[in-house]
Design brief:
Number of strands: 14
Radius of gyration: 17 Å
Shape: globular
Order of helices and strands: EEEEEHEHEEEEEEHEEH
Distance between the termini: 26 Å
Strand order of the largest sheet: 3-2-6-9-10-5-4
Number of helices: 4
Helix content: 10-25%
Largest sheet: 7 strands, antiparallel
Length: 187
């Protein structure tokens, strides 16, 4: 199959959309992001990349805590709104019902089917963004979104983002079982 050279500003598809939460100036704030990934098995860690000017970054740096909230498709408009306006001028915490676990500066969103609170481990300074690495300290899930005690993607109904076309996508059907599908090649 022929290949064509494209712009270097591509992203790996798909990118999960989440709401990163932190306490900034005494108030919960949330930012819609899609540059996030699990980066360590034990202890469990995530990394998220935020632009240097984001208001939420200041709260994470100060308190060394943040939350990751996985919104369902039903929260798409509110999630997108959290990426359009800055917490400097807008109190985005009023959009949601908030709760907290043991970490006092990692506000979580009740309406999100999966949420977790993280302790900041490291900040890696990049040219235009800062990479925040956090250890997952506690996880909460809606009971109705679990199958055998594990978060079920189909029940959670999260959504993803593609770039550079800036489009949200629904999660599709199951494609196969990891660490099993490749056994067909082994034969």
């Amino acid at each position: 199959m022929a290949k064509v050279r494209v712009d270097v500003n591509v992203s790996i598809y798909p990118m999960p959309v989440v709401l990163a939460g932190a306490v900034v100036n005494g108030r919960a704030n949330f930012l819609a992001i899609a540059w996030i990934a699990r980066v360590n098995y034990q202890p469990p860690m995530v990394a998220m990349s935020l632009g240097k000017g984001h208001y939420t970054s200041g709260g994470i740096r100060l308190h060394k805590e943040f939350s990751v909230n996985v919104p369902a498709l039903s929260l798409l408009e509110k999630t997108d709104y959290c990426g359009l306006v800055s917490g400097r001028e807008t109190d985005k915490s009023r959009l949601f019902t908030l709760f907290q676990g043991d970490l006092q500066h990692a506000p979580m969103i009740q309406e999100c089917p999966l949420t977790f609170a993280c302790r900041l481990v490291q900040v890696v300074e990049l040219p235009s963004n800062d990479l925040f690495i956090g250890e997952i300290a506690e996880v909460y899930a809606e009971e109705t979104c679990l199958t055998k005690g594990i978060p079920d993607l189909a029940k959670m109904a999260p959504f993803t983002l593609t770039m550079p076309d800036n489009t949200y996508w629904k999660i599709g059907d199951r494609a196969g079982k990891a660490w099993e599908a490749g056994r067909a090649v082994m034969k």
